[in-house]
């Protein structure tokens, strides 16, 4: 049996519950000063005031009692959290982190005002990433993904949703999903795989989006299901990409095969994506920069999590999603990076957190809920992660700060001192 005790914490800050928190409940954190956490075999046994937690832990184990007295014991790790704040491991519920190539020149050109269609004519856009990704074998993709996940872990990110969608053909899409599953098995980070074959219409189907939708429904979805390669199916529902009707067809077919659903919704234009996501009981509707009032009402009235991606709006110089309106209407809001090589090449949750608080008018408490418990709900894992309470996995971040509000106060900086995954230390480093 492996026991971990984190003691002498200046503060323990966490949302509580096993499902997404909606509206005003998002700011209701459990805040405990002078705290401790007891983890046994990867699962949190107790968390709260230090005196009570240590008493309970020592009563249940002679080895813990001896270790707390200062004598090291096999199977018992005691971590001194003096001056630190403990928060749940961060969860990034929307990323495209696995891909080949880069598009730095395109990013510069787009900010200089070159239209996206012109970039496509020059061979840029998603097609450029598609070509580079198709050229990579599984070993190269794995090493690229592993490096990214190590960097994410240093930022406190213990669970990541990873999408396919840069292959847009049979073999590359399956390869991407296999690599995502291997990364989940062979790295400390939990990787949740999503099939996003409907990310764009590939060149070989140009002008025939209906045929490509049929290819996804008739061939790809059954293959992905048969090989058990993804938890979710996602569609980029957007003007000029996939229509609402095409998105519905793919998602309804996916649901019939037993997949959980996600949707890129109302990013560049209001297409009714949020309403479609709520109607189909999708786990999440993501982006929502252009969500309609009807879409907000639909999300507020259901269980679909609104996943907002402020770093994408920042990088694209676009207005932010209406976080305040969504929360005040009663929706459940999560935050994610949208790490991708085109519009938002960053996985910095410290930046996302700061933008949410400063630019989107969320409170620090709401933002913490949005990157932990609500983000866990957005990947279907709120029963097991996303908060620090008995019965949850011991995924915990120790901040080099006495209070969780430093996450926005020290704007854009990583305060991560240590990261625990299932109760074991998987990262230690000096904070900025």
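^ structure tokens above, recovered residues below v
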């Amino acid at each position: 049996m492996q026991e971990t005790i984190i003691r002498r914490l200046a503060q323990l800050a966490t949302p509580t519950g096993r499902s997404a928190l909606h509206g005003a409940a998002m700011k209701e954190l459990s805040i405990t000063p002078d705290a401790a956490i007891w983890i046994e075999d990867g699962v949190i046994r107790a968390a709260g005031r230090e005196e009570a937690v240590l008493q309970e832990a020592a009563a249940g184990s002679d080895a813990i009692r001896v270790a707390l007295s200062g004598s090291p014991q096999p199977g018992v790790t005691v971590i001194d959290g003096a001056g630190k704040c403990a928060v749940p491991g961060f969860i990034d519920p929307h990323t495209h982190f696995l891909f080949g190539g880069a598009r730095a020149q395109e990013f510069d050109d787009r900010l200089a005002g070159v239209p996206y269609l012109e970039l496509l004519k020059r061979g840029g856009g998603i097609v450029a990433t598609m070509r580079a990704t198709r050229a990579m074998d599984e070993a190269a993709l794995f090493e690229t993904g592993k490096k990214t996940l190590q960097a994410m872990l240093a930022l406190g990110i213990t669970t990541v949703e990873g999408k396919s969608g840069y292959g847009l053909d049979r073999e590359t899409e399956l390869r991407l999903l296999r690599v995502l599953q291997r990364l989940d098995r062979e790295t400390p980070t939990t990787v949740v795989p999503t099939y996003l074959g409907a990310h764009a219409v590939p060149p070989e189907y140009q002008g025939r989006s209906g045929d490509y939708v049929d290819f996804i429904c008739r061939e790809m979805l059954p293959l992905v299901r048969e090989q058990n390669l993804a938890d979710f199916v996602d569609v980029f529902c957007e003007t000029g990409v996939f229509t609402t009707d095409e998105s519905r067809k793919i998602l309804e077919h996916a649901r019939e095969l037993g997949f959980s659903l996600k949707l890129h919704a109302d990013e560049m234009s209001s297409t009714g994506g949020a309403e479609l996501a709520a109607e189909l009981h999708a786990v999440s509707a993501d982006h929502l920069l252009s969500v309609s009032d009807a879409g907000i009402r639909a999300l507020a009235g259901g269980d679909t999590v609104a996943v907002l991606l402020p770093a994408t709006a920042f990088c694209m110089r676009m207005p932010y999603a209406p976080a305040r309106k969504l929360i005040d209407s009663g929706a459940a809001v999560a935050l994610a990076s949208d790490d991708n090589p085109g519009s938002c090449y960053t996985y910095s949750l410290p930046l996302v957190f700061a933008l949410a608080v400063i630019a989107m008018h969320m409170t620090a408490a709401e933002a913490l809920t949005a990157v932990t418990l609500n983000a866990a709900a957005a990947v279907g894992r709120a029963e097991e992660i996303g908060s620090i309470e008995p019965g949850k996995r011991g995924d915990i971040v120790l901040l080099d700060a006495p209070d969780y509000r430093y996450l926005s106060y020290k704007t854009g900086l990583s305060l991560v001192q240590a990261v625990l995954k299932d109760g074991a230390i998987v990262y230690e480093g000096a904070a900025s």
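The first strand starts at residue 3 and ends at 14.
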